[in-house]
Amino acid sequence: MSLPKTLAEDVARNLVMVARLIDEDPEQAYAYARIALRLASRVAAVREAAGFAAYATQKYAEALAEFRAARRMTGSVDLWPVMADCERGLGRPERAMAMAGDPEVQKLDKAGQVEMRLVAAGARRDMGQIDAAIVTLQSPELASSSVQPWTPRLRYAYADALLEAGREDEAREWFAKALEADKDGSTDASDRLAELDGVEFVDALGDDEASGAEADAGADQDEDGTVDGAEVSDDEDEDEADGSAKA
Protein backbone atom coordinates (compact mmCIF):
# COMPACT_ATOMS: atom_id res chain seq x y z
CA MET A 1 0.00 0.00 0.00
CA SER A 2 1.39 3.43 -0.97
CA LEU A 3 1.04 6.53 1.23
CA PRO A 4 1.08 10.23 0.40
CA LYS A 5 4.62 11.58 0.55
CA THR A 6 4.24 13.65 3.70
CA LEU A 7 2.44 10.87 5.56
CA ALA A 8 5.00 8.32 4.39
CA GLU A 9 7.80 10.50 5.76
CA ASP A 10 6.05 10.84 9.14
CA VAL A 11 5.56 7.09 9.35
CA ALA A 12 9.17 6.42 8.35
CA ARG A 13 10.48 8.76 11.06
CA ASN A 14 8.50 6.93 13.70
CA LEU A 15 9.65 3.53 12.48
CA VAL A 16 13.26 4.70 12.58
CA MET A 17 12.80 5.69 16.21
CA VAL A 18 11.25 2.30 16.98
CA ALA A 19 14.29 0.54 15.53
CA ARG A 20 16.68 2.86 17.34
CA LEU A 21 15.08 2.58 20.78
CA ILE A 22 13.65 -0.92 20.97
CA ASP A 23 16.68 -2.40 22.76
CA GLU A 24 17.61 0.47 25.07
CA ASP A 25 14.19 1.99 25.77
CA PRO A 26 11.40 -0.38 24.69
CA GLU A 27 8.64 1.68 26.30
CA GLN A 28 9.60 4.72 24.25
CA ALA A 29 9.90 2.56 21.14
CA TYR A 30 6.39 1.29 21.83
CA ALA A 31 5.11 4.87 22.00
CA TYR A 32 6.58 5.63 18.57
CA ALA A 33 5.14 2.39 17.20
CA ARG A 34 1.67 3.40 18.37
CA ILE A 35 1.99 6.72 16.53
CA ALA A 36 3.03 4.93 13.33
CA LEU A 37 0.14 2.53 13.78
CA ARG A 38 -2.35 5.38 14.03
CA LEU A 39 -0.93 6.92 10.86
CA ALA A 40 -0.71 3.78 8.71
CA SER A 41 -2.34 0.70 10.19
CA ARG A 42 -2.76 -0.88 6.76
CA VAL A 43 0.97 -1.05 6.10
CA ALA A 44 2.48 -4.46 6.92
CA ALA A 45 5.83 -3.03 8.02
CA VAL A 46 4.03 -0.80 10.52
CA ARG A 47 2.05 -3.71 11.96
CA GLU A 48 5.22 -5.77 12.26
CA ALA A 49 7.13 -2.95 13.99
CA ALA A 50 4.21 -2.42 16.35
CA GLY A 51 4.27 -6.14 17.09
CA PHE A 52 7.96 -6.15 17.99
CA ALA A 53 7.57 -3.03 20.14
CA ALA A 54 4.69 -4.65 22.03
CA TYR A 55 6.69 -7.88 22.33
CA ALA A 56 9.66 -5.97 23.77
CA THR A 57 7.41 -4.52 26.47
CA GLN A 58 5.84 -7.92 27.22
CA LYS A 59 2.44 -6.96 25.82
CA TYR A 60 2.14 -10.40 24.30
CA ALA A 61 -1.55 -10.38 23.35
CA GLU A 62 -1.12 -7.11 21.50
CA ALA A 63 2.09 -8.31 19.87
CA LEU A 64 0.44 -11.51 18.68
CA ALA A 65 -2.46 -9.56 17.16
CA GLU A 66 -0.06 -7.29 15.26
CA PHE A 67 2.07 -10.18 14.02
CA ARG A 68 -1.03 -11.99 12.79
CA ALA A 69 -2.14 -8.87 10.95
CA ALA A 70 1.27 -8.44 9.33
CA ARG A 71 1.28 -12.09 8.30
CA ARG A 72 -2.16 -11.79 6.71
CA MET A 73 -0.96 -8.81 4.70
CA THR A 74 2.27 -10.40 3.46
CA GLY A 75 1.64 -14.14 3.54
CA SER A 76 5.15 -14.55 4.99
CA VAL A 77 5.98 -17.21 7.60
CA ASP A 78 8.97 -15.31 9.00
CA LEU A 79 7.05 -14.22 12.12
CA TRP A 80 5.96 -17.76 13.02
CA PRO A 81 8.59 -18.31 15.77
CA VAL A 82 7.94 -15.01 17.53
CA MET A 83 4.20 -15.62 17.30
CA ALA A 84 4.75 -18.94 19.04
CA ASP A 85 6.84 -17.22 21.70
CA CYS A 86 3.97 -14.81 22.29
CA GLU A 87 1.84 -17.86 23.09
CA ARG A 88 4.43 -18.79 25.69
CA GLY A 89 4.31 -15.28 27.10
CA LEU A 90 0.56 -15.62 27.44
CA GLY A 91 1.00 -18.79 29.46
CA ARG A 92 0.01 -21.13 26.64
CA PRO A 93 3.13 -23.27 26.01
CA GLU A 94 1.02 -26.08 24.57
CA ARG A 95 -0.03 -23.77 21.73
CA ALA A 96 3.61 -22.88 21.09
CA MET A 97 4.39 -26.60 20.88
CA ALA A 98 1.55 -27.10 18.41
CA MET A 99 2.94 -24.30 16.25
CA ALA A 100 6.40 -25.92 16.40
CA GLY A 101 4.93 -29.00 14.74
CA ASP A 102 3.03 -27.06 12.08
CA PRO A 103 3.99 -27.47 8.38
CA GLU A 104 4.67 -23.72 8.32
CA VAL A 105 7.94 -24.40 10.12
CA GLN A 106 9.29 -26.20 7.06
CA LYS A 107 8.92 -22.97 5.08
CA LEU A 108 11.23 -21.09 7.43
CA ASP A 109 14.85 -20.45 6.52
CA LYS A 110 17.60 -21.96 8.67
CA ALA A 111 17.65 -19.05 11.12
CA GLY A 112 13.89 -19.25 11.51
CA GLN A 113 13.99 -22.99 12.13
CA VAL A 114 16.64 -22.56 14.83
CA GLU A 115 14.54 -19.84 16.41
CA MET A 116 11.53 -22.15 16.37
CA ARG A 117 13.61 -24.85 18.05
CA LEU A 118 14.55 -22.39 20.80
CA VAL A 119 10.91 -21.46 21.32
CA ALA A 120 9.86 -25.12 21.42
CA ALA A 121 12.53 -25.92 23.99
CA GLY A 122 11.36 -22.98 26.07
CA ALA A 123 7.79 -24.27 25.87
CA ARG A 124 8.95 -27.69 27.07
CA ARG A 125 10.63 -26.06 30.04
CA ASP A 126 7.49 -24.06 30.77
CA MET A 127 5.64 -27.35 31.05
CA GLY A 128 8.31 -28.82 33.34
CA GLN A 129 9.66 -31.16 30.66
CA ILE A 130 13.34 -30.35 31.08
CA ASP A 131 14.68 -33.56 29.56
CA ALA A 132 12.49 -33.07 26.49
CA ALA A 133 13.76 -29.49 26.23
CA ILE A 134 17.34 -30.76 26.17
CA VAL A 135 16.53 -33.24 23.43
CA THR A 136 14.72 -30.54 21.45
CA LEU A 137 17.88 -28.42 21.40
CA GLN A 138 20.11 -31.29 20.27
CA SER A 139 20.44 -30.68 16.56
CA PRO A 140 22.99 -30.48 13.73
CA GLU A 141 23.13 -26.71 14.31
CA LEU A 142 24.12 -27.27 17.95
CA ALA A 143 26.76 -29.84 17.05
CA SER A 144 28.23 -27.76 14.23
CA SER A 145 31.62 -26.16 14.81
CA SER A 146 30.81 -23.29 12.45
CA VAL A 147 29.61 -20.10 14.10
CA GLN A 148 26.39 -18.58 12.83
CA PRO A 149 24.39 -15.62 14.18
CA TRP A 150 22.20 -18.00 16.17
CA THR A 151 25.05 -20.11 17.58
CA PRO A 152 25.63 -18.25 20.89
CA ARG A 153 21.95 -18.29 21.84
CA LEU A 154 21.49 -21.93 20.87
CA ARG A 155 24.50 -23.05 22.89
CA TYR A 156 23.47 -20.83 25.80
CA ALA A 157 19.94 -22.26 25.87
CA TYR A 158 21.35 -25.78 25.84
CA ALA A 159 23.74 -24.97 28.69
CA ASP A 160 20.95 -23.40 30.71
CA ALA A 161 18.71 -26.41 30.22
CA LEU A 162 21.52 -28.76 31.25
CA LEU A 163 22.07 -26.72 34.39
CA GLU A 164 18.40 -26.89 35.29
CA ALA A 165 18.60 -30.67 34.87
CA GLY A 166 21.47 -30.77 37.38
CA ARG A 167 24.13 -31.61 34.78
CA GLU A 168 26.52 -28.92 35.95
CA ASP A 169 29.74 -30.12 34.30
CA GLU A 170 28.08 -30.36 30.89
CA ALA A 171 26.41 -27.00 31.45
CA ARG A 172 29.77 -25.38 32.17
CA GLU A 173 31.20 -26.85 28.96
CA TRP A 174 28.35 -25.42 26.87
CA PHE A 175 28.40 -22.02 28.55
CA ALA A 176 32.08 -21.90 27.59
CA LYS A 177 31.20 -22.83 24.01
CA ALA A 178 28.51 -20.15 23.96
CA LEU A 179 31.01 -17.58 25.21
CA GLU A 180 33.51 -18.64 22.57
CA ALA A 181 30.96 -17.96 19.83
CA ASP A 182 29.52 -14.81 21.40
CA LYS A 183 31.68 -12.06 19.94
CA ASP A 184 29.04 -9.36 20.40
CA GLY A 185 28.14 -10.10 24.01
CA SER A 186 24.57 -11.05 23.17
CA THR A 187 24.42 -13.45 26.13
CA ASP A 188 25.67 -13.36 29.72
CA ALA A 189 27.58 -16.62 29.29
CA SER A 190 30.68 -15.14 30.92
CA ASP A 191 28.71 -14.28 34.07
CA ARG A 192 27.15 -17.73 34.18
CA LEU A 193 30.58 -19.34 33.89
CA ALA A 194 31.93 -17.17 36.68
CA GLU A 195 28.97 -18.09 38.84
CA LEU A 196 29.59 -21.80 38.28
CA ASP A 197 33.26 -21.34 39.11
CA GLY A 198 32.44 -19.45 42.29
CA VAL A 199 34.07 -16.24 41.10
CA GLU A 200 32.87 -13.04 42.75
CA PHE A 201 33.38 -9.72 41.03
CA VAL A 202 34.48 -6.74 43.14
CA ASP A 203 33.07 -3.34 42.28
CA ALA A 204 36.38 -1.61 41.70
CA LEU A 205 34.66 1.62 40.74
CA GLY A 206 32.77 1.66 44.02
CA ASP A 207 36.02 1.18 45.97
CA ASP A 208 37.68 3.98 44.03
CA GLU A 209 34.76 6.30 44.71
CA ALA A 210 34.91 5.50 48.44
CA SER A 211 38.65 6.18 48.50
CA GLY A 212 38.10 9.42 46.65
CA ALA A 213 35.49 10.53 49.18
CA GLU A 214 37.90 9.84 52.04
CA ALA A 215 40.64 11.75 50.26
CA ASP A 216 38.30 14.70 49.75
CA ALA A 217 37.36 14.68 53.42
CA GLY A 218 41.02 14.63 54.40
CA ALA A 219 41.74 17.49 52.03
CA ASP A 220 39.16 19.64 53.84
CA GLN A 221 41.39 19.75 56.92
CA ASP A 222 45.08 20.08 56.23
CA GLU A 223 47.88 19.42 58.65
CA ASP A 224 48.28 23.15 59.29
CA GLY A 225 44.79 23.33 60.79
CA THR A 226 43.13 24.83 57.73
CA VAL A 227 39.51 23.83 57.27
CA ASP A 228 38.06 24.66 53.84
CA GLY A 229 40.67 27.35 53.43
CA ALA A 230 40.13 28.98 56.88
CA GLU A 231 42.91 28.72 59.44
CA VAL A 232 41.94 28.00 63.03
CA SER A 233 44.63 28.97 65.55
CA ASP A 234 45.09 28.08 69.16
CA ASP A 235 44.93 31.79 70.06
CA GLU A 236 41.45 32.14 68.56
CA ASP A 237 40.29 29.15 70.62
CA GLU A 238 41.64 30.74 73.79
CA ASP A 239 39.96 34.10 73.02
CA GLU A 240 36.64 32.38 72.49
CA ALA A 241 37.04 30.59 75.82
CA ASP A 242 37.85 33.85 77.65
CA GLY A 243 34.85 35.55 76.11
CA SER A 244 32.57 32.80 77.24
CA ALA A 245 33.92 32.96 80.79
CA LYS A 246 33.41 36.75 81.01
CA ALA A 247 29.89 36.48 79.75
Question: What's the arrangement of secondary structure elements?
Answer:
Blueprint: H1 5-21, H2 26-39, H3 44-56, H4 60-74, H5 80-89, H6 93-100, H7 110-126, H8 130-137, H9 140-143, H10 151-164, H11 168-181, H12 189-196, H13 204-220, E1 226-227, E2 230-231, H14 234-246
Antiparallel strand pairs: 1-2
Task: Describe the structure in your own words.
The protein is mainly alpha-helical. The chain has 14 helices and two strands. It has a two-stranded antiparallel sheet with strand order 1-2. The termini are far apart. The model is unreliable at 221-247 (pLDDT under 50).
Give a short summary of the structure:
With 247 residues, the chain is mainly alpha-helical. Helices cover 70% and strands 2% of the residues.
Query: Number of helical segments?
Result: 14
Biggest sheet: strand arrangement: 1-2
What can be said about the biggest beta sheet?
Answer: 2 strands, antiparallel
- The structural class is mainly alpha
Cα-atom Rg, whole angstroms? 29 Å
- Extended strand count: 2
Low-confidence stretches: 221-247
Spatial shape: globular
